[in-house]
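User: We ran a pulldown and think these components assemble together. Before we commit to crystallization trials, I'd like a predicted model of the whole complex to look at. Sequences follow.
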Amino acid sequence: MKYIVCIKQVPSTNEVRLDPETHAIIRDGRQSVINPFDLYAVELAKRLKEKTGGTLTALSMGIPATERLLREAVSRGADDAVLLTDRAFAGSDTLATSYAISLGVKAVGGADLILCGKMAVDGDTAQIGPELAETLGIHHVTDVCEVLDITEKDITVKKLTEAGTVTLKVSFPAVITVVKDIVQPGLPSIAGVRKSMDAPFTVFTAAEASADTARTGFAGSPTNVVKTFTPEGRTEAVPVAASDAAEFILNAIKEVR
Amino acid sequence: MMTEKLIHPMIEDYAEYLKDESRSVGEAESISFPQSEEEVRAIMKEVYAKGEKITIQGARTGLAAAAVPHGGHIMNLMKLNKTLSMREDENGKFYVTVEPGTILSQLKKSIESRKFNTTDWSDDAKKTFIRFAQAPEQLLTPDPTESSAAIGGLVACNASGARSYLYGPTRGRVTALRIVLTDGDVIDVKRGETFAKGRELTLTTEGGRTINVQLPTYQLPKTKNASGYYVDDDMDAIDLFIGSDGTLGVITQVELELLPMPATIWGVTCFFTKETEAVKFVDEVRNNITRLASLEFFDGKALALLRKQKAESTAFAQLPVIDPSYDSAVYTEIQCDTDDEAKERLFAIGEAMERCGGSEENTWVARNASERDILYFFRHATPESVNMTIDRRKKIDPIITKLGSDMSVPDKYLAEVIDMYNKTIEEEGLEAVKFGHIGNNHLHVNILPRSGEEYKRGKELFKKWAAKVTEMGGAVSAEHGVGKLKADFLMIMYGEDHIKEMAELKAAFDPKGTIGTGNLFTPIVKGGAF
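Assistant: Here's a predicted model for the assembly, 787 residues in total across the polymer chains.
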C-alpha cells in the first residue's frame, strides 16, 4: 500500500500583533507549524500503514523552509518527504495548489490513498482535498470522522455531515480529508526526530514536476476574492403536529431520495 | 477616608473567601476588597487599631493555607489588579509594575500579545511600552503550575515552578515592592538600594518613621527554599518581604523583571520502566547538559492515576496514551538560540536515557507551543487528579484533606530521600503519588488517605520526613511557603530559638501580632510568650 499525506505550513498563532506607532503587523519570527487538521491525517496515515504495511510519503507545496515541517511529519511516522517549491508556484489559489500537489503525487508514482486535513486553519477553504481528487480523476470523501475498514482495494469510512454521518466505501486510488479528533495525534519520539534527519527528502521544481506554468502560481489562479462571509445555516426546525408526523417523515424521505 | 463602605460583614456570599486551594476552611468576621493603595491604607489603619486579626488574600491558589483566615478581617486584593507602569534599563531590559491582584496567566498573556491598558500610564511608561511592543518577545519566568495565582501571592510565598530549575524562584525577578504597614504607612523598597549591615536592617518609611530590624541568626539551607523569612548577612532589604507569607505588611505594588524569550524551546518527556533509571537519568543530565529549564518527575503511581483519569473523565481525554510499561517519567525543557543547538541537546538527552537503561523511543518531543501545551497539561493533570481523588475520599471522612509535601534536599541526597519516601510509605501501608521538581531534589509527595486514620498517620509521617530532610540540610518548604499548614515543620527545621527570632522580627512590623496570624508561627505578643 502506498500512502501520501498532504501537509500545509500555517502560522502558529492567529493572534495579530500591531506596532503601536506604525500600526503595521509585527512579524515576530514565531515559527510556523503543520496545519493542525493535517496532524490528524498524519497520525491516521501512520496507523493505517501500521495495519496494512506499505509506505507513507509526506507531501507539501511551499517555501524551502517547509522542509522542517515535512521532516516533522517524518518524525511523526512518515517514511520520506517531498516538497514542491518554485517561484512559479507563488501566489497559487486552491486550483493552482491542487494542480501542483497532483503533480507531486504523480512525480512519486501515485498512491493508493491520499490523506489531507479537512481544511487549513489559515485559509479555511476546505477545497484542496476535493480539487486534488478531481485533478487526479479519482474518488474522494471529505470530512471523514472514522475509518471502519481498510483492505488492499478499498476503504470504508464514516463521513460527518450536517445531519449525522454517512458510511461510504471507496475503491483506491482515493483521497480522504479528515476531521479533528478522528484519531489522537501522538508526539514524536527522540528516535523519530533522529530518523527524520536522515530520511529521504526530495525537492521538485515546477519544471522537474513537468508543470504547465499556465496552470501554476498567479497565472493558474482564477480565484478572485470579492467578499468573505459566514454562510447561513441550512438546517431549520419545522413544527409538525403529531397527527401529521408519519406523512411528513415519509415525504421528507422521498425528498432526500 | 471613610471605611464603612469598604469593610463588609461576613455573610454567606463570601463563604469562598474562607478557604484556599489547600482545601482547609477558616473563619472571619469581616472582609474588604480594596481597589487602591489608599483604600488599603485606610482599612489597615482602622482594622489594626481595633486589634483584629487581618488575613491578606490574593487568588487563594496557595497550598499552605496562608490565605485562610483564623478569625478577624480578610483583606482580599483581587480588585487591586492594574498594570501600572513599564520601564527599560540601560541594558534594554524591561520591567513591569503591577498591583498584587494581577493574575499571572493574564499578565503573561499581556506580555505575549503586548496588550496593556496604558491609558493612565506616565508619558515615559507609554514610550517604554512602544519600545517593548517592538522588541523581541519577552518572558516572565515564574511558572507555578497554578497559573491563575495572583502576583502578590507569588511574591508572598516566593513561588517557583518547573522552570525555576533554570531561572530560580520568583525572588530573583522582583526588583521593587511597595508595602503598606500596620499603621497605614508605606515602605517603598527597590532592589540594590537598601542593605542590612550584617544582620541589622534599618528601614525608613514614606512617613519618615525608622524601623530597626534584628534579622534572625539562622543560615538558609543551600537548597531550593521557601521556609520562613529570607535572611542573610548584608542582605538586600527587598528579600525580607519576598516569601514573608503575608506577615509583615500588604504588598500594593510589585515590579517584575522580564527576560528575553529564548528563540527555541523544546520540551521532552522521557519515560522509564523503572524508577531507579529515571533517578539515575536526572543525575546524568543535570551534570552534563546545560540550559535545561526544568527537570520534572512523575512516579509510577502518578502515571497510573493519569491513565485512570484519562479512561474515566472526558476532561482528561486529551492526555496522550501512556504506555502501560512506563513506570516513571522525567520532563525536561531545552531552551536555546537555534534549532541545531536544540537538536544536539535533544540527542544528548536521548543518549543519557540509553546509558541509564531507558530508550529514546519512549519519549514525547514537543517542538512548538501547542505541542508543549500537551506536555504542560500532562504536568498539571497530576496534581488535579490528586485533588479530585482527595475530594472523593473526603466523602469517606471529612477530616481527610490534601497531604502534599514540599521538601527539598541537596543534590547528593536525591536517591536517598526517594528511598526514604518509598520505604516509609510502604511501611505505613499508605497510598501516595510522587511528582515534581526532581532537578532541585524537590518532590511533592502526595499521600492519598483512604480513611481518617490514614490521614493522621500520613501527617505524622510528614513530620518524620521534615526531621530527616532537615538532617540532610534541606528545606521543609521549597516553594509553597509555610503558611499555616507547615508551621510545625518550620519549628522542626529551625528550632525554637530561631522561631523566636522570627517572631521578634515580625513584631518590629506588627507589634500586635495580628497580620497573617498563624502563618509561619504563632506570633509573639508583647508581654506574653509566643
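Chain B has three domains: 7-76, 83-260, 264-471. That may be worth checking against your pulldown data before setting up trials.

User: Thanks, that helps.
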